[in-house]
Amino acid sequence: MNPCPCGFLGDATGRCRxxxxxxxxxxxxxxxxxxxxxxxxxAMENVGPAQLRVSxxxxxxxxxxxxxxxxxxxxxxxxxxxxxxxxxxxxVERYCGVTPEGVDILEVALQRFGLSVxxxxxxLKVARSVADLEGSDCITGAHVSEAxxxxxxxxxxxGGRGDRSYAGGxxxxxxxxxxx
Length: 180
Fold this sequence. Notes:
Elements: H1 20-28, H2 32-36, H3 49-53, H4 62-80, H5 89-95, H6 100-113, H7 117-134, H8 141-149, H9 152-156, E1 164-167, E2 170-173
Antiparallel strand pairs: 1-2
């Protein structure tokens, strides 16, 4: 989905003129229960024509990433017979143990972002996947933090902030267009 009605929120050109109220209404069109069922929601920046034409080496080749993913899937299937995304509630409790630091981060996130139990379980499954990709047996605070970064729409938490909130990392006011 677009980040706002005009589609330019967070764009470096500053073309967005949407007010906070317009952005809130736009995001309110997505129900909480539907959002809870999405494991990842990440803002992506626009890619300009010049960037598309640039030839060069990516930091990490697709084949290398694909192999890391295959290894992580083998780890998951060996440990629990299914991939992390398919764990049920009991599986999450059994296989997604978190270090005390990770638990603290999760508790803050639950309170700050108002995550549901479903979203909490999804964060744990993504954190387990992040740990598997790193070859870690336990889920640390860093893994939990990374998993939470993949749930950006939860972090907008439009309610409860009065007439000010955050959009694309910038404080915005309900009375004026979003500043970039």
